[in-house]
Amino acid sequence: MALDRLIERIVATQNPTVAGLDPKLDYLPSYLKEEAFARHGKNLAGAAAAILTYNKALVDALCDIVPAVKPQLAYYEMYGVEGVRTFYETVAYAKEKGMFVIADGKRNDIGTTMEAYATAHLGEVEVEGEMFTPFGSDALTVNGYLGSDGVKPLLNVCEKLDKGIFVLVKTSNPSSGELQDEHIGDRTVYEVMGSMCEEWGKALPGKYGYSGVGAVVGATYPEQLAELRKKLPHTFFLVPGYGAQGGGAKDVAGAFDARGLGAIVNSSRGILCAWKKENCDERDFTGAARREAIRMRDDIVSVSGKASL
Fold first, then answer.
1. How many domains are there within the chain?
2. Name one GO molecular function term (predicted).
3. Which residues touch 107 (CB under 8 Å, ≥6 apart)?
């Protein structure tokens, strides 16, 4: 099961964190942009080329200490077809370097349309009798608020090809409570969604106690995070909201179980823009990213403890 592989990477690196590869041109050192624009022009192709060089350098700097990356599709789609190609090449490069890849697409639809999303990001597509892998990520974020019709089409692909999903449960944004904190009977909407993840996960059991159906639960709501950890014993958490969004180590402590497992914590801007925060030479952007990733790892492990199978 795919999330077993993620758990094994977390234990091997002793690092329950994921680097979000959500690049904007403003995050890139000027010399990378100048080099790409000189080759391709100041256009979408030049922007996408600069981002790919940036991403590959970050992967090289992080792959031995960070178990996973999470590229957010919107940051690639905004550069059109060239940006989507950069997404594809980023996924392939990170996997080549041994990293687990979570495609952050928050896909949401039903029936054959959801099957098409599953095929694109996790599966294989047949063309005249020959099979091809479109993007090949290890896991995909999913919006489950269309109910089972929007999730079940993914489960067959996940089982067949050893993939996983992370379903939005309690998100980190300030307005999440407008819907997710409302009640269905005596339970909150997010609690109901979490229990659905537990149920869907029965189709994808894992050998370390967690299923292939994970949940997105934000660090910005630490009480709910701890509450859900107790109520969802077989659901692995992807935790956004650390760092730039305001969450710290104490806020994510409740996401982990007694083995130091149960969650992987995301940082995007904190790592991508570490060179700006340090005010170091822009050509040391990878060194700054690595230093921030190590600082984050040590911060999280101070509350999660050693990870063990």
1. 1
2. orotidine-5'-phosphate decarboxylase activity
3. 114, 117, 121, 140, 141, 142, 143
